[in-house]
Specification:
Layout lengths: L8 H15 L3 H27 L33
Length: 86
């Protein structure tokens, strides 16, 4: 069982049969090849965009050094000559 109450192996078999009936057995390898080529182009373009923007790739990113924030000085309120009201 892949997912609880979800996709089971016989579901995949039905999807495969429907795809073969829709596209035919001759078109499926060409379609898969075109999809793979499109995914490779997409991957190379996203990699080029990352390099252009200067962002490191997520897998090659070095861990950021831990920096503790500086504490702001505590300011005490200025004394006032306030007298209680009667």
């Amino acid at each position: 069982m892949f997912l609880r109450n979800g996709l089971e192996p016989w579901h995949l078999l039905i999807v495969a049969v429907v795809l073969i009936l829709l596209f035919g057995s001759k078109k499926l390898p060409d379609t898969a090849r075109a999809l793979g080529k499109s995914l490779r182009i997409l991957k190379s373009e996203t990699k080029a965009m990352r390099e252009d923007s200067g962002d490191p790739a997520p897998a090659a990113a070095a861990p950021a050094p831990q920096v503790t924030p500086a504490r702001a000085p505590v300011q005490t309120p200025a004394p006032t000559d306030a007298r209680p009201v009667q």
